[in-house]
Write a structure and sequence with these properties.
Length: 280
Amino acid sequence: MPAIPDEHVVRVLRPFVAATGPVLRGLRDADPFRLGRLARRRAIEVQDGAGDTERLPAPSTRRGRIGRAFRAARARVLDRLATSKLPGTPRWQAMSPEERDRWWVSRVGRFTSAVASIPGIGGALARRLPVSDILGLGAQGLVVCAIASEHGVDGRDEQVRLLAAVLFGRDVDPTRHGDPHGTDVEREAGDLSGGVGSGEHEEERGRLAALARAVWRMGRTLWGLQQELDRRPQGRTFWRVLANLPVVGALASYRSERSGLKRAARAAAAWVAREQGRRR
């Protein structure tokens, strides 16, 4: 008999899933260096034939040649951005769900795993605190839900089933435990997301700080299922042992969280493929 009833697992996971919508949109659209905006602008210029320095007559002065070289270099950089895998660019629109899965793991996962690894710098003593595990758990949950959405699995209870299976090795039936859109679920989800995506954090720095706080709160709510946490995807044993050492523990903890995140992503994709195969 499970130590924690399925009903409690569902009650914890539903607000988490409901909160992932605005948080994932915030993580996807966060653009602190405005690279995405530059990439989209350059894509429009290329499509319209504007900004092509090769079509302009060769300048006759040294200053003109320097300006032309600068504009050509700028155009090359923007061309790289316009063809990069950034949300909102033509390349992003053409990416397959599998390619977007890898984007979520490599970009968003790298950031959250790095944040989660910071307590490891103090060795075993610092790792007695749950900070690293809380952030790592929140990151895994977010990436699993992101992968589900990229593959067309958007139903809240479907994502609850997915999270329970991947993070805790549990097979639950959320339809037996209340309304996934109930008032309590919506209220708790709002508390977790903290207004991310509601227009309250227009400045990029403020939005990133709000996202960091949201990831912390979301990981902390999953921490309420402590008796199930040993089942979550873990990094390689080598990195987990090395994480107990001073100084090098930070790097080892980072690598461990990255490894665990990749395992969670693979498990999520496999679960979605199995479920979709059964429905055909």
